[in-house]
Amino acid sequence: LREEAASLCYELHRPETVPALRRALASSDDETVRRWAALALLRAGGGPSNLAEELLEGADLRWRRRAALAFAESGDGRGGPELTAWWEQEAKAGGVSFEQQRDILAAIQRIRYRPAARILATSLPDVRLRAHLAPVLGALGDGGARGPLLRAFVE
After folding, report:
1. How far is Cα 103 from Cα 73, in angstroms, rounded to an integer?
2. pLDDT surpasses 90 at 57
3. For the chain, how far is it from start to end, CA to CA, in angstroms?
4. From the centroid of its chain, how far is CA 117?
5. Which residue, of 56, 57, 82, 88, has the fewest CB within 10 Å?
6. Is 51:62 a contact under the CB 8 Å cutoff?
7. Could you tell me the pLDDT band of residue 43, with boundaries at 50, 70 and 90?
8. What is the enclosing helix (H) or strand (E) of 13?
9. What are the backbone angles phi and psi of residue 47, rounded to the nearest 5°?
C-alpha cells in the first residue's frame, strides 16, 4: 500500500505531499518506497536527495529514467541524455503512455536539451504528439528540426 501511495505521489507531483514524502524517505524500511519518495519529492519541488542522485546514476534503467525525468523537471540538465535515449528507444514507438510522452517532452523543453531535437523530430508523423513537439523543437532552437517540422505541418 505504501509503495503504491509513493508511486502515485511521483505521478501527481503535488507540493502538498512534500512533508509526507520527506517522512517516508527518512523512515521507511522499504527500499522501493524510499526510491519512489525520493523521486516524488524531487518532482514535487522538495529538492534532490542523495538517494535521487544515486538513482540517476544507477544501473536500473527504469529507476534511472524516472530519476532523469524528475531531475529535468526540476531544471537539472543531467537528465537530458537519459530522456533522449528513453524517447528514442521507447517513447516514439509507443512504449510509454501518452501522458509520459508529454512529461518527457516538457522536461526536455525545461532543460533545453538541444541534442534531443533531431531525435524528437523523427516523431513528428505522430499527429497526437505534433502539437506537443512543435513548441519543444522551437524552444530547443536546433535548425536541423525546422525542415521536418515544416514538412509535418504542410502534410
Report:
1. 8
2. yes
3. 48
4. 15
5. 57
6. no
7. very high
8. none
9. 85, 160
- What DSSP character marks residue 1? -
Judge contact between 28 and 84, C-beta under 8 A: no
Q: In whole angstroms, what is the distance from residue 10 CA to residue 17 CA?
A: 10
Determine the pLDDT at residue 113. 96
Grid cell locating 63: 529507476
**88 is written with which cell numbers?**
528514442
**Cell 527518512 belongs to which residue?**
26
State the cell numbers at 46: 522538495
Amino acid identity at 32 = T
CA atoms within 13 A on the CB side of 21: 31
Assign 120 a pLDDT band (cuts: 50, 70, 90). very high
- Reading the block at residue 36, the C-alpha cell is 519512489
d(Cα 75, Cα 121) in Å, to the nearest integer? 22
Give the helix ranges, DSSP H, for the chain: 2-12, 18-27, 31-43, 50-57, 61-73, 80-89, 98-111, 117-121, 127-140, 146-154
Alpha-helix residue ranges (DSSP H) falling in 28-97: 31-43, 50-57, 61-73, 80-89
